[in-house]
């Protein structure tokens, strides 16, 4: 199982470099299934791995001019609020056992994974449906007061999801940038990586405890593999068409979400 975990960690980094998202979509299940960590521990550790990998990718895209700093900040500030609310209020309020009915036990871990999968399916549907829509680099005139409010709300939602399920939010950020602000897929990827890095590392610093220091050697190894995969993904992204990237992203997210849903139902 460890070998599969290391291989899929490289694939996680490839996903981040290729489509600017998918890191947590893969990392949470990798830690949960292959490294046998519980849902809470996996979501926290995922934030570190994805945050570091996305940070390297964001720095590369910044050099290429693929990051819109203004939009990134508009997303990041409400995202931080959402992360704080989720980690300090929502998760602590939930009991470990939510429902016990005959032989069926609904746990906090189950709820986290189901919420994760449902959010992924909604995002994949948007990208598949609108993959043929044209996009162009956003301009200052696009950032009207209505769009600023919409971006802020999206940022808050992404932050809540980041805090609740340990996802960086790229699977929600990419559709928002492409569909709302008409970003090209390359600009959306660069900006998404910057937001993911900020959200993930912020969420990790809020959740890391001294009991998790034993995970550090494993996390550093996974980070190294993820960064290697991210460079590979960057090379692939330059060779693929924009429409193919959008559609591929949508189907990729849907496939992972379907697997998680089926697995959690069979575990009941």
> What's the helix-strand series?
HHHHEEHHHHHH
Mean pLDDT metric? 80
Helical stretch tally = 10
Bin the strand percentage. Answer: under 5%
Percent helix range:
over 70%
Number of strands: 2
Largest sheet: 2 strands, antiparallel
**Cα-to-Cα separation, first versus last residue:** 23 Å
Which structural class should the secondary elements be placed in?
mainly alpha
Total domain units: 1
Unreliable residue stretches: 137-141
Strand order of the largest sheet: 1-2
Based on CA inertia axes, which overall geometry fits?
Answer: globular
Secondary-structure topology with pairs:
Elements: H1 2-19, H2 23-34, H3 39-64, H4 69-93, E1 97-101, E2 104-107, H5 108-129, H6 145-165, H7 170-180, H8 185-207, H9 216-237, H10 242-266
Antiparallel strand pairs: 1-2
Helix pairs in contact: 1-2, 1-8, 1-9, 2-3, 3-8, 3-9, 4-6, 4-8, 5-10, 6-7, 7-8
